[in-house]
Write a structure and sequence with these properties.
By secondary structure, this protein is an alpha/beta fold. Helices cover about 35% and strands about 15% of the residues.
Length: about 325
């Protein structure tokens, strides 16, 4: 019987003749940080806050763990914590005392959003305060505009959005952010602000806001679920990129200072197209459903913070290049 020698299973120690080794730049966290192309800073983020009347409780929103209905004092406290953490902008959404067919509570000078704007600017003058402009939180039917024959009347809605935007600006908002997706809303708001001698107030337009199943938790938080139908006659078809670019172009022509894509993670191609086609700042809204998906993950081996950082790096990379 012939005994064969044992095969040598140890790895070869012969060094490959490689002049270029990309792994040299990944050897340690210090090196990785030094050459990192995309950095997400607190200053890159906008913190959304839901503001309710002072006679309502400060409660956590069930579908969005860690997110609350804030009265004015809590909105100020949250803004202070955000500012101390390096965040320099908040975006306010309001829930009124009462609702009607045209959302008239949205331009009440003593409304929750107006009161929160004033209080935040008094306490933290350096904080950039933005206010969402839409009627859905304020109408009894839950749609984003005036209803005529079971449809949203675009042109009848425009002066109401402008009135709301001016009210927020008069309270001290640095930016108004129309999210309604009515045709011509940016021009109507820009004209109204300028006529009110508030040309310094900016507009961050929700330019490509897609009809999406990711908005469910937000609608619970904002108490803005439509009482009939849906929003697909004014929010965009998720299948369309060229139409999104057309919407952005119109908002830029009408005077928008920033444009936005919403939702974010499912529309990375749209974000990239926005960055490649327009020189204005581009925002990406990581919406409530995307947040809720991360928070709902129960796998103990999943690092939620790391996952959120990965999401933010993906979005920041698309917005930058």
């Amino acid at each position: 019987m012939r005994i064969l020698p044992k095969s040598d299973t140890s790895p070869s120690t012969k060094q490959a003749d490689l002049k270029k080794r990309p792994r040299r730049l990944r050897r340690s966290e210090s090196i990785r940080a030094l050459v990192r192309e995309t950095v997400v800073r607190p200053e890159d983020l906008i913190y959304p806050l839901f503001v309710v009347p002072d006679n309502r409780p400060h409660v956590e929103i069930q579908s969005m763990p860690g997110v609350f209905h804030n009265r004015v004092r809590e909105a100020v406290e949250e803004s202070l914590r955000a500012y101390d953490a390096g965040i320099r902008a908040v975006l306010l959404f309001g829930l009124p005392e009462s609702k009607d067919a045209i959302g008239s509570a949205s331009w009440d000078p003593s409304g929750p959003v107006q009161s929160a704007i004033e209080a935040i600017k008094n306490k933290i003058p350096q904080m950039c305060v933005m206010a969402d402009v839409c009627l859905c939180e304020y109408t009894d039917h839950g749609h984003c505009g005036v209803i005529d024959s079971q449809d949203v009347d675009n042109d009848a809605t425009l002066p109401l959005l402008a009135k709301q935007a001016v009210s927020f600006a008069q309270a001290g908002a640095d930016f108004v952010a129309p999210s309604d997706m009515m045709d011509g809303r940016v021009a109507a708001i820009r004209d109204a602000l300028d006529e009110a001698s508030m040309s310094e107030v900016g507009i961050m337009a929700y330019s490509a806001k897609f009809a999406s199943g990711f908005y469910g938790p937000f609608r619970e938080a904002a108490e803005s679920t439509p009482q009939f139908g849906d929003r697909r006659t004014y929010q965009m078809d998720p299948a369309n990129v060229r139409e999104a670019l057309r919407e952005m172009e119109l908002d830029v022509e009408e005077g928008a200072d920033m444009i936005m894509v919403k939702p974010a993670l499912a529309y990375l191609d749209v974000i990239r197209a926005a960055r490649e086609n327009f020189d204005l700042p581009v925002a990406a809204y990581n919406v409530s459903g995307e947040y809720a998906m991360v928070k709902a993950e129960r796998d103990p081996d999943l690092d939620q913070a790391r996952r959120r950082r990965s999401d933010h790096h993906v979005l920041r990379r698309g917005l930058r290049y």
